[in-house]
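Anyone able to model this chain together with D-gluconic acid?
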Amino acid sequence: MSGDQTGAAPRTHHVVVIGVSGSGKSTIAAELAGRLNLRFADADDFHPPANVAKMSEGIPLTDEDRLPWLQSLATWMRERGAAGESTVLACSALKRSYRDLLREGGGQVAFLHLDGPAETILSRMRTRDHFMPPSLLESQVATLEPLEADEPGTALDLTLTREEIVDRAEDWLVGPGGLPAPPDRPHRGGDPR
Ligand SMILES: Nc1ncnc2c1ncn2[C@@H]1O[C@H](COP(=O)(O)OP(=O)(O)OP(=O)(O)O)[C@@H](O)[C@H]1O
Ligand SMILES: O=C(O)[C@H](O)[C@@H](O)[C@H](O)[C@H](O)CO
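re: yes, here you go
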């Protein structure tokens, strides 16, 4: 294996499960990381207390609020990559510019967007215990910029069961359109989508 241009360890993979609050990122990313035996992190745990306080009060974050948080996530990805570790990160990454910043961490990055109707998300948000109030869903949806054609990744239907979503995520990741296979896990090839 040869090194890449970023200084990160070669062929590390970073799967970033993205979407609005309540779309299922933490749930799906943790299950996927367990299944693929990759290191998991939840971007919620990287927010400075001021950001959490703001969201708890029902105030949407600004680009300025999010910048240091995104930088700390890119650093985490870079450090894991440099240690030869692949990762699964649950992170809203609502805008293209946020995702571009995360990709600066190096390695092979793929975004899995949990996408679906706001009504489903809202009903899930209302029944969980979390600092993020359901009232912020509207601003999350307004801020969201879906994956563009030149971004590495795919959208997944959040209305499916957890198992179905993780199955589809795994199929995409190891299939021909997904990430290059790591040396110890060859592509299955020819998987039905
Ligand atoms: N596929 C699913 N089917 C049914 N319920 C789900 C599914 N995925 C997640 N949930 C539930 O929906 C709620 C929201 O999920 P979760 O907290 O993982 O979302 P999130 O995107 O990480 O939210 P946030 O960004 O606000 O932390 C949780 O109660 C979770 O158990
Ligand atoms: O960019 C943002 O507005 C934030 O990251 C939110 O998306 C929350 O962190 C999360 O979704 C709530 O738990």
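The CA atoms of residues 58 and 171 lie 37 Å apart.
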